[in-house]
Amino acid sequence: MNEKYYVCTGCALLCDDIEIECDGYRISGVNSACRKGVARMKGCQDPLACSISGQKADIDAAIKEAAEILTNADNPLIFGLGNSTIEAQKKAIEVARRVHAYIDDTSSFCQGPVIEAILNGQIRSCTLDEVRHQADVIIYWGADPANSHPRHLSKYSYFPRGKERQRGWEEDRTAIAIDVRHSDTAEICKDHFYQIPPQADRELIDALTSALSGKVPKVSFGMESKKILELASILKKAQFGTIFVGLGLVYSLSDMEPLIKLMDKLNEVSNFHLVPMVGQYNMRGADQPMFNETGYINRVHFDTDPTGADVTRHGPECSAVELLRSGEVDAALVIGSDPMGSLPRSIAEHLLHIPVINIDPCKTQTSRNAAVTIPCALGGVESGGSAIRMDGVQVELPVILKSDRLSDMEIFDRILEVL
Amino acid sequence: MTGAMEIYQLLPKTNCKECGRSTCMAFAAALLSRDAVVDDCPILKEEKYRDNYENLTKIVSPVGNASETGMIVHEELCTGCGNCVVACPVNVAEDPYGAGAGKTPTNDKVILRVEDGIVRISNVEDCRRFGENKILCSGCIVTCPTKAIEFI
Ligand code: SF4
Ligand code: SF4
Ligand code: SF4
Ligand code: SF4
């Protein structure tokens, strides 16, 4: 057996027990990663080339051009960062400060509100290792890890045996799925699947909160009070409960208030924790240095006031989505993200009208129309660094294969030099 | 999992006995237990049954893929999630701190492991469904989110 384990950067579970076989310059075998992770580690089919205005360019020229675009813009935006190491993210913040840019990561339309509530101490969280060793009641709410984080259930949350969960999932753990559809995860939870209509999460949260307070819960959709009381009683009896919050739940709540109330109630009568199902491998990482430096996790504008002094602004108007919608930004640096492919056309369209710098290992919809493209090494494979797992634990990423492409951190470093 | 009734619905239902069975239903049962192959029914080769024939060959995997315990892995369905690896009682007994604890197997005695994103079987003779004291273990079946493991 292999002595050395590597880390998979296929999702924010950052599985740290991956065995790799290499033949020369190529990864030939990947053991224990899921299919999604193997696809990530084996690299992209269509690597990004270095270019300026669609013409092949050398890396020095591309970096110089990128720095120029950022300096010449009045309101540049730096966006993405979920697939970058913490070291690169810190450099990105430095670049943003230097050119007075807006900076935002994908969490602003993702798990941002949940992460913020955890970092502000409003919601109690725990680590995945604690879940493996202790959790007896696990809830997947608006989440389908069987597809989004394939090893979630096997590595941490349901199937493995842990210190206080020696008898395994059959006897020691209860897995519950709450979702609008019968997902693959719900299939595994069998009788503990609670189906709700779209946008009904808030109602069920409130109903559960009253059930836990000893009131008779009522909802307007076809779920009987008895069923909700049954669920409440499982939660009440939990020794160590954890709710894994997926985007399904985040998107249906206009604010975190109901969830915070439910968690408070749960911790009055039981022992509960909440962990966001972060997608991109280091999206949680992107929030942390920003929070440490500015007090905000995302949506920051390093602006100047009329006297020319630096001010840090923050707010919904600074989110990438809002900035693109309003057409406020006049240049964008997009790293490790594909807004042209993932955001609604009406919003992403603005990127076609402004100079875009795209840093990515692979070709994407966004790189197709970018003014400058700079290929970077594949994070966690060709370049190392550190990242933060969905539960806030920092994980070191060893290099698997050497590459002559620059890491995303080095690219920011070079941009800073030119600036 | 596919049932005999589901298979029967796709057969010609003429009970012509060409397949060597007395009825189409009997042939369906034989297909299910892999005692027969879809090609044993000549009627299915007729043009009007073409869709049925194709569907049948999809749902009834050829016996060649099965291990000695009758275990079949539908590789195209497997996501490499590792649920079966961690849940299999033999894996847990042989490797409690590796596979049993959710991690990469640390020895060669396990039955199930994930390689290149797909589950692989070894040591099938140790499977609880095998041998003299066999029991109807279903650890790897009920934990699979995509029904990629089947026993025939
Ligand atoms: S679950 Fe995520 S981190 Fe783990 S192997 Fe799969 S893609 Fe990689
Ligand atoms: S040969 Fe085909 S049609 Fe005839 S009895 Fe057998 S299954 Fe039925
Ligand atoms: S049937 Fe049981 S012992 Fe055999 S491979 Fe599946 S889980 Fe393991
Ligand atoms: S549980 Fe199913 S999908 Fe997961 S590794 Fe095993 S066979 Fe593949």
Would you kindly provide a written description of the structure presented here, covering whatever features stand out?
The complex is a heterodimer of chains A (419) and B (152). Chain A has a 9-stranded mixed β-sheet with strand order 4-3-16-15-14-5-6-12-13. In chain A, helix 10 (201-212) runs parallel beside helix 13. Chain A contains 19 helices and 18 strands. Chain A is an alpha/beta fold and 419 residues long. In chain A, strand 8, helix 9 and strand 9 form a beta-alpha-beta unit. Chain A has 2 domains: 47-107 and 282-381 and 405-418, Rossmann fold; 112-276, Dimethylsulfoxide Reductase, domain 2 (3-Layer(aba) Sandwich). By secondary structure, chain B is α+β, with helices and mostly antiparallel strands. Chain B has 2 domains: 4-60, Electron transport complex subunit B, putative Fe-S cluster (3-methyladenine DNA Glycosylase II, Chain A, domain 3, Orthogonal Bundle), CATH 1.10.15; 71-151, Alpha-Beta Plaits (2-Layer Sandwich). Chain B is 27% helix and 9% strand. Chain B has 6 helices and 4 strands; from the N terminus they run H-H-H-E-H-H-E-E-H-E. Chain B has helices at residues 4-10, 24-32, 50-59, 83-87, 89-94, 139-142; strands spanning 71-73, 112-115, 118-121, 149-151. In chain B, the strands form 2 sheets. Chain B has a two-stranded antiparallel sheet with strand order 1-4. Chain B has a two-stranded antiparallel ribbon with strand order 2-3. In chain B, a hairpin with a 2-residue loop joins strand 2 and strand 3 (118-121). In chain B, helix 1 (4-10) crosses helix 2 (24-32). The longest helix of chain B has 10 residues, at 50-59. The radius of gyration of chain B is 18 Å and the shape is elongated. Chain B starts with a helix and ends with a strand. Chain A binds chain B through residues 1, 5, 17-19, 29-39, 132, 146-147, 150-151, 153-156, 159-162, 168-169, 184-185, 187-188, and chain B through 78-83, 85-87, 92, 96, 100-108, 113-118, 143, 145-146. The complex binds iron/sulfur cluster (4 copies). The site of one iron/sulfur cluster (SF4) has 14 residues of chain B, from helix 4.
